[in-house]
Amino acid sequence: MKRCFGVLGGDLRQAELARLLRDDGQEVHTWGLSREDPGETELTEALSAEMILLPLPLCWDDGVLNCQGRTILTRELFRQMTPSQLVLAGQVKEHERQEAETAGISLLDYFKREELTVANAIPTAEGAIQIAMAELPVTLCGAEVLVLGYGRIGKLLAHRFHELGARVTVAARKWEQRAWAKAFGCDTVGIGELSDNLGRYCLVVNTVPAVLLRKAQLCHLSKDCLYIDVASQPGLDQTAASELGLRTIWARGLPGKCAPVSAAAAIRDTIYHILEERGEHT
User: Fold this and answer.
1) Strands (DSSP E) found in the chain
2) 146: Cβ contacts below 8 Å, ≥ 6 apart
3) Cα 124 versus chain centre, distance
4) Residue whose C-alpha is closest to residue 230's, from 139, 134, 130, 138
């Protein structure tokens, strides 16, 4: 069944999502993708679609739509929608959901779907490895690597680094996570036990969206250590890291940079799954 989608804002993932939907025979109107989609429409036309697809994440800055070259507050955007429309976005914060509700809009978070979060973890892990290989002066084979966190992304990172021959240590809070990491050939350490061993690592990759490393821990890192953060919020004290002269890269949004077609296909499939579960077949 042909449907009309409005694809607004985002990065290359959204541009590829629009292309994939068109390839499926869907009617698609875009806005806020001027760099990637020269055929984009006016905002009012994009907002007239029966389904509105907003980016992942919905906002980078507080209350401002994640959008290239355009600035619009999400609360203003919601006021231009109608309650009859199906509106979907990724990584929606609670206050953003409340903004939509105040405007009478039911906003669904497609990034809460497990099939998408798992699929999204793959290009994130591969992108982090790509950065590490480009920035490190040594091979990953034989390198001492610390992975902070053992969620979906942490698991993939640890396993892939291990397969490349790195000596991988996983820092995790939960005993069961550490048990699984050991089962896959990694060393493990508790989050609160990091200070004593940090100097041995040439690469630290954080996947936890919370500050784990403060100055007391960061001062133990080697000056040659590369710190890559793939979490939505930094996992270290950025001021302290700068004062200590540490090499840090906040690599957020990697799927849209490293594998936008694969990332977009995962979003499209998830949207189709949502519609199918609602009894609205595509």
Assistant:
1) 4-8, 27-31, 51-53, 59-61, 64-65, 86-89, 107-109, 144-148, 167-171, 187-189, 203-206, 226-229, 247-250
2) 168, 169, 170, 171, 198, 201, 203, 204, 205
3) 7
4) 130
Q: What is the pLDDT of residues 156-215, one digit of tens each?
A: 999 999 999 999 999 999 999 999 999 999 999 998 888 778 999 999 999 999 999 999
Our CA dihedral for 204, 210, 215, 220, rounded to 10 degrees, sits at -30
Residue type, 26: Q
126's tokens: 């591969």
Entry field: residues in the chain: 282
39: left (phi over 0), alpha (psi -120 to 50) or beta: alpha
- Residue-wise pLDDT tens digits, 209-235: 999 999 999 999 999 999 999 998 889
Asked whether 202 and 226 are in contact (CB, 8 A), the reply is: yes
| Residue 116 CB contacts under 8 Å (≥ 6 apart), including other chains | 90, 110, 266, 267, 270
Whether the bond between 137 and the residue before it is cis, its omega within 30 degrees of 0, is no
pTM of the complete model: 0.88
Neighbouring residues of 76: CB distance < 8 A, sequence distance ≥ 6: none
Q: Compute, in degrees rounded to 10, the torsion defined by CA atoms 52, 53, 57, 59.
A: -30
